[in-house]
Amino acid sequence: MRIGVFGGSFDPIHQGHLILAEQCREQAGLDAVWFVPCALSPHKEQGAQGTDRQRIEMIELALAGHPAFQLARIEIERGGVSYTVDTLKAIHELHTDDELFLLLGADSLDSFDTWHEPTEICQLATPLIVNRPGANEIDLSVFEKHVDSQRYASFCRYPIASPLIDIQSRQIRDKVEKQQSIRYLTPRAVEKYIETQKLYCQK
After folding, report:
1. CATH of 2-165, one of 3.40.50.2300, 3.40.50.620, 3.10.20.740, 3.40.30.10
2. For 164-192, b where at least 16 C-beta lie within 10 A, e where not — what string?
3. Cα(27)–Cα(173) distance, rounded to whole angstroms?
4. What is the pLDDT of residue 74?
5. Which helix (H) or strand (E) holds 71?
6. What is the mean pLDDT of each run of 10 residues along the chain (203 residues)?
7. 62, 92, 99, 174: most buried, per Cβ within 10 A?
């Protein structure tokens, strides 16, 4: 199997996440995309506002009906700071015959060298980079120092073309707090969940 691994806070999951995942699935020929909500992100100073349960339930609502999209609780169950390399190692140990791909927004490239064990990440998974509004032009050369020339060439085989969807989870949380509409920014089921759970409202 060809498994795409898509990590993030998903606080909340939104249409931009889903479009990115679907474009990667189709263009890279993935058999499955695993959405992996983090426990604690090493790239964000504050933790998620939604609880683990709430973020998981929103992801389940958003993925319902898509046969290739799956929720993976691996980081939530492990707890602590969620390092991508640890997640990829754990998946590889259980799926030794499968090929792993790591779904990333282009904005991640600027900081990739500061990630925990970036070279090991590149050995475990092929990055699939999707452009993001406001990010620099995609330059895969950041990976060259971490892999040999043959593996680097394999990274370059998967240019992902995707609509530039400028939606951020923070934007949705801010709109909810200000009692503004989030219609179409996130799936309708997630929108209603946020409403009924009174998520992101000012305390």
Report:
1. 3.40.50.620
2. ebebebeebbeebeeeeebeebbbeebbe
3. 31
4. 97
5. strand 69-71
6. 97 96 97 96 74 97 97 96 96 96 91 95 96 77 95 92 88 96 98 96 71
7. 62
